[in-house]
Amino acid sequence: LMPDRFANGDPSNDSHSGMLEKANRANLNGRHGGDIKGISNHLNYISDLGFTTLWINPLVENNNPEYSYHGYAITDFYKIDPRYGTNEDYVNLVSQAHNKNLKVVMDMVFNHCSIYHWFIEDLPFENWIHQFDEFTRSNFRASTIVDPHASDGDRDKMLTGWFDQHMADLDQRNGFLSDYLIQNTIWWIEYAGIDGIRVDTQPYSYKEFISDWAKAVFEEYPDFSIVGEAWLQEEAFTAYFQADADNPDGYNSHIPSVTDFPMRNVLNEAFNESNSWTGGLAKIYYVLAQDNIYPDAGNNLIFLDNHDLDRYYTSVKLDFRKWKMGVGALLTLRGIPSVYYGTELLMTGKEHDGHGHIRMDFPGGWVSDTRNAFEKAGRTEAEQKAYTYMKKLLNWRKTNEAVIKGTTKQFVPDGDTYVYFRCYPGKNVMVAMNNNENEMKALQTERFAECLEGYTWAENVITGEKVHYLDAITVAPKSILILELKK
Questions:
Q1: What is the pTM of this model?
Q2: Engineered SS bond to 33: which of 8, 42, 312, 351, CB 3.0-4.6 Å?
Q3: Do strands 441-443 and 473-475 pair parallel, antiparallel, or not at all (unpaired)?
């Protein structure tokens, strides 16, 4: 969740005398006042929905004159931004989350920081950052790190170019800087008791540093969780950045989990398309078919949207049926599902219109809001249907061994339908999709005998309806059917 846009629990800290940017909720790109207190006030909402972990966008100080709300232009790596609260408030939030069986993932940024950071304004070394005669932006081609044919110039521009004019690009080849970032990480783990870290823009930092950083963390905390943001469009590129990948150059990132953008892309496309050899539901099939390229695809972070992308409900053209198919797939496919705040309420927004549109305030997070969507009475009928659907699936998922740690068996898409199973001894789950706009589809279940053997009936996970004849299963138009198989 994006803390500035989730809930304002303490209006007294919205603006701060020592901070360059003051709160202005009327400005979509400004600070709105969400804070740590707002998150802690709504831990029950998050827990009741069925989530087990909180990933919060950076809370550390971002003392910048504008756009400071997003958190990725850090001015102090050791200090919580006072407009969110104090370091002690953050420690208390982690403790409160743990008391509700919620884990906390801290978002960390190693590639860049704000030009207003004290060690940028007074550089300890010339090679602390990448410097140019004139502003040079990254080409954002993370593929150059993997591409065996990449030019040196393209790869260098990817690594050394700045994200933006207010974000200085750090050079982790400087040993003092790399030590600083590693020590800062270990300090936060010790100090706050966090459970995991999300590494922002993993491919943009020098890969040798990322590997050394991860090894240092796991040397101290062998059971710690780390996910790297690897924003790449192809499976082979993404897999390169996961720990223990079989890379030709021998590189090992030691980052166990990576963001699965290829899966995100197809889940945003498949339900808007007609089925074909490579289109529609076949897109999901082909992404899964390449899982052998990952060291552990089950450890991929899968998602429908996030703070940088179109809201999912917008992506599926405000079609609730497609939204349910996407959420149903997200919560039954291999990988670790991640849900962006507000997806459960069908929040909309297009990235092309500006980031403020995909990072809107959660309704009810501010005292002045006209409604409170944290409560049932404050949700629209459509929002309540979405909320109930997601809550049902999330709470079922976290107790179902097949979808948590089972294997996947998929069957080639057949016309408008696509079926996969999550298999675990005695607890198989069947997932069937029908991408046809108007027609019910009957499944030829003899195809699935290897996964249905030994099971005599099933229960619809969403409706609770009993399916007594597994040889005759129909799937409604534009829908996903999730069946827990029974003996």
A1: 0.97
A2: 8
A3: antiparallel
Indicate whether 268 and 138 sit together in one domain: yes
For residue 17 the two structure tokens come to 């005398």
What pLDDT does 472 receive?
Answer: 86
Crossing angle for the helix pair 207-220 and 175-192, to the nearest 10 degrees: 40
> Do residues 72 and 213 share a domain?
yes
CB 262 within 8 Å of CB 291: no
Whether residues 220 and 249 share a domain: the answer is: yes
Q: How many CB atoms lie within 10 A of CB 319?
A: 15
Q: How far apart are CA 280 and CA 273, in angstroms?
A: 5
* Cβ contact 74:165 at 8 Å: no
Q: Residue 444 is part of a domain; what is its CATH number?
A: 2.60.40.1180
State pLDDT tens for residues 287-298: 999 999 999 999
Assess contact for 349 and 360: CB atoms under 8 A. Answer: yes
Q: Tokens in use for 102? A: 């919620």
In angstroms, the Cα distances linking 148 to 151, 202, 249, 266, 487 are 9, 19, 9, 26, 51
In the chain, how many domains are there? 2
- Which of 353, 257, 255, 342 has its CA nearest to residue 304? 342
Which of 81, 89, 200, 260 is an active site residue?
200
Kindly report the CA angle at 138 between 135 and 142, in degrees rounded to 5? 170
Are 395 and 430 within one domain?
no
Q: Classify residue 359 as exposed, middle or buried by CB count within 10 Å of its CB (0-12, 13-18, 19+).
A: buried
DSSP H helices, 398-472, are 401-405, 449-452
CATH number, domain of 334, equals: 3.20.20.80
| Helices assigned H by DSSP within 344-472 | 381-397, 401-405, 449-452
Residue where one domain finishes, among candidates 404, 425, 451 = 404
What pairing do the DSSP bridges indicate for beta strands 225-228 and 167-169? unpaired
Domain assignment of residue 482, given as a range = 405-486
Domain boundary among 356, 378, 404: 404
CB 388 within 8 A of CB 381: no
What percent of the chain has pLDDT above 90?
100
392 and 430 assigned to the same domain? no
The reply to whether 442 and 378 lie within a common domain is no
- Is residue 229 flagged as an active site residue? yes
Residue 401 annotated in active site: no
Q: Which of the residues 35, 195, 229, 416 is marked catalytic? A: 229
pLDDT of residue 279: 97
Helices 320-330 & 261-269, crossing angle to 10 degrees?
150
H or E element, residue 49: helix 43-49
Segments of the chain scoring below 70 in pLDDT: none
The pair of structure tokens assigned to 7 is 């809930």
Alpha helices in 270-380 (DSSP H): 282-289, 312-315, 320-330
